[in-house]
Amino acid sequence: MLSAQEYSYVYYNTRDGLAGSTIYDMCQDKDGFIWFATEAGLSRFDGTRFKNFTTADGLPEVEILKLYADHQGRVWIAPFKNTICYYYQGKIYTSANDSLLKKVKLNTVITHITGDKEDNIFLCSVGHDAYLLQTRKGPGKFIDLRAHGRLFSYAQPNFFDRDGLIVSTSDSTFILANGKLQFWSTGALPLKAFVTLHDYDHKIKYIKLPVESLNAYIHFDAEKKQTQTYFALTNHGAWMVDTLHFDHFEEIFLKEKQVNSALIDNERNIWFGTGGEGVYKLVSRNFKTYSFKDSKTSEIFSLTRHGQAMLAGTGFNRMYSIVGSKVDSIDFYKAFSGSVNQTSSNRLVSIKKTSAGNLVLGFDLFLFQKNASGSLVNYVFPIKSIDEIDAQTLLVGTGRNVIRVREKDLKVLDTIWPYRSTAVSYYNDSFYVGTVDGLHVVSKDGPSRFLGKDFPSLRYRTACFARSADGILWTATYGGGVVGMKDNRIIGHLTTRQGISSDICRSLFVYQNYLWVGTDKGINKVDISKPTYPVHRYSTSDGLPSDIINAIYVDSSRVYVGSPAGLTTFDEKQVSDYSRCDLRVLDISVSGLSKRLQPAYELGYNDNNLRIEFVAISFKSGGDIMYRYRLKGLKDSWDSTRQNQLEYPSLPSGNYQLELLAINKFGVVSNPVIIPFLIDTPYWQAWWFKILVVGFAIGLTATLVAWRFSIVQRREKEKIGLQQKIHELEQLALLSQMNPHFIFNCLNSIQAFIINNDVEKTNQYLTEFAYLIRQTMDSAEKGVISIGQEVRYLTRYIELEKMRFGHSFEYTIETDVQIDQVNTCLPSMLLQPYVENSIRHGIRHKRNGQGVLEIKFQQSGDQLLCIVEDNGIGRESARQFRSHLHVEYQSKGMTLAAARVKALNRQYGEPVVIEIIDKTDQEQRPTGTRVEIYFPYKMLSKLS
Fold it and tell me: Disulfide check for 869: which of 40, 87, 672, 930 has CB 3.0–4.6 Å away?
């Protein structure tokens, strides 16, 4: 019912990137890469990625039959064609581009390639024709061994005398050295079902194969004879010869599979190439897995030891009991027949051995116990976890709740937690309940507390618990790693940052001072006695059949692992930590173009976009490689990455040195890679160009400064001229106020007051007139006037005009309360012409009704609005009156005011806007004039 223990292999096929699934031959080159000859091309493997070669890369044919890696780093390739070629430093060489290969003339396909330490390459074809390529002497030499009149079938390095090759014919064995044959021993070629061996005493022995066909005989030499390995490859597996007695086969690998080729790499991994089923890698012969043929599944969900037996819980109502090499299957179909859900796979997810020595089994469909008095079954909800409260009581977590169960009869006593649970533990007189939302603790008194509220790491789904001898409760979570708690505080927290392989933790086991953690990426052995919690990891790269770990049990150095692949066991003391880490640069690209690999690079200043691709070859590490690098000249500190490429998109000119190291899973440090880079200095950074630029900059600066100085001078002159023009206009405005007509009219009024003996009015008029003349002179001198002063000036002026015209009009002056009359200034004598115009040309000629003059100062957004409005005869009628006046009496105040506004606008860059509005009634008859003058506050602030 149970197959024998099988090795755990790492499997590669076309879905992983392999060129083909039929592997004819394999070899490992000088750099550490493993090459595969397939029916669909040539594949090179670095431990993580496959690189495939076809005719597009230079191969004469895609189907490759044989491979050989020599000591110079060349990989010799025999395609399914009458030719030979080799790969060297990124290029495939054939008879079309290699002078030595042009000399090679083959009649049939090559079926065997080997070489000696001097890289004399032996070739054997289908018809047993043999050839020799001497590759180290001058341009090389091609020797046709058919001249000796013999048919050769096989050759191997002379691992006895270390010179030349051992070659076999149909009846003899020779030493082939320096192109000459030397007889060594006699012996008939064995039948296809026999393997011929040369032992250390040069004696030929034959071993009968248990099968009828021999695909190949492979010998692996080593530095010491005690480590030599022989494989007989057949259609029914690979048979390893007992190299102690040379009289029988020690072991078989991949039984019932067609094995075409075998290889032991420099980390002692064993590779098998099969016919149609890809490549199998055997990392360790220490890892063995039980597969259960009569079960619907091999997956193991729970493990424990009971006496001498290891118990393994699987699916479909079954448990396995393993004692030594004997395996018994125990089924629970009788209990299963009483369950409601007959479609369930009914996994055995929990096995608890109580202090009384009883076994309590937790299935998906029921709780089971078998003791001396018989079997007990309780069909409670799906069991998730079992723990012991005391000698009589169990704590059981189910998919619906957490309950207390009496051990002797599996009776449910009460409910601890009314919701779904994932794991349970009785710890420090409290019930620890794991759920999909995190960890809760329930006291015996009933209150519960969510520990995830205080500890974010406990908000993840709880997988299981384990208690160590120091009283720490370890909790495995799905996503938060492993958390260790004691006295309601976190003692330790294990995550990928601390070195475990994954934060998704599925199982725990404590043995002595070690916490074993099963994750979805392998096993982690954590030394919890040390504060740094050092971690040792095991995964498929070490020999495990699966990285998903459902259960772990450790007994001394023997480790049992339950996974989807079955039950795996290994002795950790016998697991070899021997490993190598060979760092190789694959490609260096400059500005997107691949460059030939060389010790150093000198690049142009435009070729400063670098991309370096590399790989660390460590087949035991399974891609678990950390790279450390720095580019001296750019950054002296070291950085780390798990990517296998670096990019520097825009390096400045200068000298750089790339330093690169790799550290594999076992802490083995690779060979260092050091590549100097020199990026030329562009001409614009050369010293002579800098001097030229500095001189040109000085000359250009001097020119610009002179030009700018001339512009400033010109603008200063314009500014002075503009200021002078403003002063001239101010003087003209002053003169316009003092025009003879105004003075003459004032004097006539004074004369009239004197004739009428009105001394009081005469004195009053003269006084006001004198004040007005003085105020006009002061305003003209300052150039600006505050609004308060402007109001007083206009008031005095209007009062004089009102006396002169016999009080024929009324006026008002209003100022907005928001306006600061003291600190807000206007250009002096700019409003007076418009007021004068309203009185002399608008109100003066009004015949009907009282004349009205209104002056207003208002705030309009960021502008000051000044309004002069009258109800006179309007501008058109006023023009008709002015046309009858003598020229010397016509006022020029309005023209001078407009010219002054233009000058102000040019000087300050802030426009003063004047709008003159003709007022009309509904019948379009003139009803007066309204003048609006807008002063920007920015300009007024400059005036102030």
Answer: 930
Instruction: Name residue, tokens 């000058």.
Output: 903
Per-residue confidence band for 909, with pLDDT thresholds at 50, 70 and 90: confident
Q: Are 21 and 37 in contact (CB under 8 A)?
A: no
Total Cβ atoms within 10 A of residue 335: 22
Q: What is the pLDDT of residue 222?
A: 47
Contact 913, 942 (CB under 8 A): no
d(CA 261, CA 271) in angstroms, rounded, equals: 8
Question: What confidence tens digit (pLDDT) does each residue in 86-142 have?
Answer: 999 999 999 999 999 999 988 889 988 998 888 889 898 877 788 888 887 777 888
Among candidate residues 241, 238, 163, the one with its CA nearest the CA of residue 196: 241
Provide the b/e sequence for 632-654 (b: ≥16 CB within 10 Å).
ebeeeeeeeeeebebeeeebeee
pLDDT value of residue 208:
61
Is the pLDDT reported for residue 573 higher than 60?
Answer: yes
Instruction: Give dist(CA 507, CA 579) in Å, integer.
Output: 28
> Which H helix or E strand runs over 941?
helix 937-943
Other CB atoms within 10 Å distance of the CB of residue 784: 15
What SS3 state is found at 649?
A: coil
Calculated CA dihedral for residues 902, 907, 912, 918, nearest 10 degrees: -10
Phi, psi of 794 (to 5 degrees): -65, -35
Cβ(567)–Cβ(322) below 8 Å: yes
Would you state the torsion angle of the CA atoms of residues 709, 710, 713, 715, taken in this order, to the nearest 10 degrees?
-110
Rounded to the nearest angstrom, the gap between the alpha carbon of residue 827 and the centroid of all alpha carbons in its chain is 68
pLDDT in tens, 609-621: 999 999 999 998 8
* Residues 299-322: tens digit of each pLDDT: 999 999 999 999 999 999 999 999
The two tokens of residue 5 are 């223990």
Token readout for 244 is: 């102690």
CA distances from 354 to 31, 331, 387, 411, 824 (A): 56, 21, 9, 16, 99
Task: Give dist(CA 299, CA 313) in Å, integer.
Answer: 9
Q: Which of 99, 55, 47, 59 is nearest to 83 (CA)?
A: 59
Q: What is the pLDDT of residues 235-255, one digit of tens each?
A: 888 888 766 665 667 788 998
Tokens of 473: 């409760």
**Helix or strand run (H / E) with residue 787:** helix 787-804
Q: What pLDDT score was predicted for residue 500?
A: 95
pLDDT averaged over every residue in the chain: 86
Residue 737 has phi, psi (to 5 degrees) of -75, -30
The better pLDDT of the pair 198, 861 is held by: 861
CA distance 12 to 732: 105
Provide the 8-state DSSP code for 842: I
**Nearest one of 797, 868, 855, 857 to 825, comparing CA atoms:** 857
Q: Which residues contact 546 (CB under 8 A, 6 or more apart)?
A: 540, 563, 564, 565
Helix, strand counts (H, E) of the chain? 9, 71
Nearest to 304 by CA among 32, 73, 167, 507: 507
- 242-272 as b/e: b if 16+ CB within 10 A: ebeebeebeebbbeebbbbbbbbbebbbbbb
The Cα 30–Cα 51 span in angstroms is 17
Q: Where are the alpha helices (DSSP H) in 139-223?
A: none
Query: Across the beta sheet with 514-519, what order do the strands follow?
Result: 505-511, 514-519, 522-527, 535-538
**Block residue for tokens 């953690």:** 517
Residue 577: helix, strand or coil by DSSP?
coil
Instruction: Give the tokens for residue 128.
Output: 């047993």
User: Apex CA 610: angle with CA 609 and CA 615, to 5°?
Assistant: 160
Least confident of 136-140, 219-223, 478-482: 219-223
- The continuous run of DSSP H or E covering 804 comes out as helix 787-804
